[in-house]
Design goal:
There is one protein chain. Helix content is 46%, strand content 12%. By secondary structure, the protein is α/β, with parallel strands linked by helices. It folds into two domains: 3-13 and 92-220, 3-Layer(aba) Sandwich (Rossmann fold), CATH 3.40.50.1000; 15-88, DNA polymerase, domain 1. The longest helix is centred in the first third of the chain and has 25 residues, at 28-52.
Length: 222
C-alpha cells in the first residue's frame, strides 16, 4: 500500500499568514522580513536541538525563535503582541489547494498521514481548525521520539507507526531539507514548489517529482 506523508507547516498550512498580524504591529515593510527571520530561526533551533539531543517541543522552538527575532529587531513587540502571534500560530489557515487535493487523495486508496515536527496535539488542533483533519488516517509526530526532521530516525518512526515500506512511502513537502531527508531514508518525494522564487538545495539530490500545487499530486503519484 502506498502511504503519503504530508508535511504540515508551509505545505498544507500557510504559515506566512502571520504576516498580516505582524503588519498591524510593525507595518507592512518590516512584517515580511520579520516573519521570514522568525521561521528561519525556528527551523534552526529545531535542527540544533536535534543534533545536540537536547529536545524541546516544537512550540518551544517557535517561542524562542520569536523572542530572538524580536530582540534582533530592537524589541518592537510587547508581551501581549508576542502572545497573540503565538496564538495565531495555532490557528493558521490551509492553503487554497489543500482541501480539494486531500479529498481526492484520501479516496484514492492511498494512506494519508500528517507528518510533522509539531506535537500530535498541536497538529491535530491546527488541522481541525483548518478543516483538514477528516482527510487523514493519523497524525505522526516527531515528538514521539524527541527529535526533528531531517533526523533519519524520524522517517523510520513514521514507517514503524504506519507499517509501511520506504519504497512505497511518499513525502509531500515544500521544504527541501525535508525532501532531502526523506530521500536519504529511501522514500519517494514530492517537492511542492509554491513560488517561482523557491530554491531547492543544490546537494545533487532531486525530488522524485516537483509540483506547483497539491492538485497535481493525484496525477503524478502512482
Amino acid at each position: 500500500m502506498t502511504n503519503l506523508a504530508f508535511d504540515v507547516y508551509g505545505t498544507l498550512i500557510d504559515a506566512q499568514s502571520v504576516v498580516s498580524t505582524l503588519s498591524s504591529y510593525l507595518g507592512t515593510d518590516k512584517a515580511e522580513s520579520f516573519s521570514s527571520r522568525w521561521r528561519d530561526k525556528q527551523l534552526e533551533y529545531s535542527f540544533r536541538r536535534g543534533l545536540m539531543r537536547q529536545y524541546q517541543d516544537f512550540a518551544v522552538c517557535t517561542k524562542e525563535a520569536l523572542e530572538f527575532t524580536n530582540n534582533e529587531y530592537g524589541s518592537p513587540l510587547n508581551e501581549e503582541q508576542k502572545e497573540n502571534l503565538l496564538d495565531t500560530y495555532t490557528r493558521l489557515p490551509a492553503f487554497d489547494d489543500a482541501r480539494a487535493a486531500l479529498s481526492k487523495l484520501s479516496l484514492s486508496g492511498m494512506g494519508c498521514f500528517a507528518f510533522s515536527n509539531g506535537s500530535q496535539e498541536a497538529v491535530s488542533g491546527l488541522l481541525e481548525k483548518a478543516e483538514l483533519s477528516s482527510y487523514f488516517n493519523d497524525v505522526i509526530s516527531c515528538k514521539d521520539i524527541k527529535s526533528f526532521k531531517p533526523d533519519p530516525e524520524v522517517y523510520q518512526h513514521f514507517l514503524d507507526k504506519t507499517g509501511g515500506q520506504a519504497e512505497s512511502t511518499w513525502l509531500i513537502s515544500s521544504n527541501s531539507f525535508d525532501i532531502i531527508g526523506a530521500n536519504a531514508a529511501g522514500w519517494k518525494t514530492a517537492w511542492v514548489k509554491r513560488t517561482k522564487e523557491a530554491q531547492f538545495d543544490p546537494w545533487g539530490i532531486e525530488p522524485t517529482i516537483t509540483v506547483s500545487s497539491l492538485s497535481q499530486l493525484i496525477e503524478n503519484i502512482k
